[in-house]
């Protein structure tokens, strides 16, 4: 683990600890509790060893069942995987417009997803709060959109400074093209930026607007999360003394 929160693991380029982020009250989030990344399917044995050394014992997989079915890697016995389909692609009425206008993959759909499908993010949060002892890593495919939405909500509940939430998201943007190049896929950042420009904004400003407009108190009030679950999320599963 580098001081800059990067989780160095062979097979991952977009993995990091969500500890060490500045909170509104001047504190920082605890390290070694919650991590985010792209898909872990490309981890080598050495990569899995790095996750174990970081204290990670649970992986929450936000991808669809069809994505998970295409995995080729083998996960070690010491890690517990909790699948949560964050997208809910069966809800075609929600997704059709975003597929047609190309906004899937940009921050311009995040607010709508949180408004229409809050239970999907709540299910992830419940998995994070109730995981077995040890660190918890959550991921989707690229570690950007689904993972980004969950990180936004988690960090907001933990009262992380909004600028820190935005900066953490932009770290994924910065490594995105290199991450896809590593698997022989053309990067999408230029296209995503163009789509945002067509809507009068930038990737950074679009995500910043989602963070600024997120009503964390209202979300929590409607979430059904128990006081114990909320305490686990707010404290990053750190027992209070």
Features:
241 residues; alpha/beta; five-stranded mixed β-sheet; single chain; 5 strands; Protein-Tyrosine Phosphatase, Chain A; 46% helix
Within the largest sheet, what's the order of strands? 1-2-5-3-4
What's the number of structural domains? 1
Please tally the β strands and state the result: 5
CATH architecture: Alpha-Beta Complex
CATH C-level class: Alpha Beta
| CATH topology-level fold name | Protein-Tyrosine Phosphatase, Chain A
Number of helices: 11
What is the succession of H and E elements? EEHEHEHHHEHHHHHH
The main pleated sheet reads as: 5 strands, mixed
Which percent range fits the helix content?
40-55%
Radius of gyration: 17 Å
Q: Give the low-pLDDT segments.
A: none
* Overall morphology: globular
Q: What is the subunit arrangement here? A: single chain
Structure description:
There is one protein chain. By secondary structure, the chain is α/β, with parallel strands linked by helices. It has eleven helices and five strands; from the N terminus they run ββαβαβαααβαααααα. The protein has a five-stranded mixed β-sheet. The longest helix is centred in the last third of the chain and has 20 residues, at 162-181.
Concise summary:
The protein is of the alpha/beta class and 241 residues long.
């Amino acid at each position: 683990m580098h001081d800059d929160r990067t989780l160095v693991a062979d097979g991952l380029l977009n993995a990091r600890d969500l500890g060490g982020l500045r909170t509104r009250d001047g504190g920082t989030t605890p390290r070694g509790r919650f991590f985010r990344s792209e898909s872990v399917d490309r981890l080598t044995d050495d990569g899995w060893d790095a996750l174990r050394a970081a204290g990670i014992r649970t992986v929450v997989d936000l991808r669809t069942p069809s994505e998970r079915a295409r995995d080729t890697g083998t996960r070690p016995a010491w890690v517990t995987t909790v699948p949560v389909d964050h997208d809910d692609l069966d809800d075609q009425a929600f997704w059709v417009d975003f597929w047609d206008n190309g906004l899937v993959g940009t921050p311009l759909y995040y607010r709508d997803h949180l408004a229409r499908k809050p239970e999907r993010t709540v299910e992830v949060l419940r998995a994070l709060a109730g995981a077995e002892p040890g660190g918890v890593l959550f991921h989707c495919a690229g570690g950007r959109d689904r993972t980004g939405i969950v990180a936004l909500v988690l960090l907001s509940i933990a009262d992380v400074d909004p600028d820190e939430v935005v900066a953490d998201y932009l770290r994924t943007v910065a490594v995105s093209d290199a991450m896809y190049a590593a698997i022989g896929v053309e990067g999408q950042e230029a296209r995503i930026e163009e789509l945002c420009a067509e809507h009068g904004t930038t990737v950074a400003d679009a995500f910043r607007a989602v963070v600024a407009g997120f009503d964390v108190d209202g979300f929590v009030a409607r979430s059904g999360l128990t006081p114990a679950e909320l305490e686990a999320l707010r404290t990053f599963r750190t027992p209070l003394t």
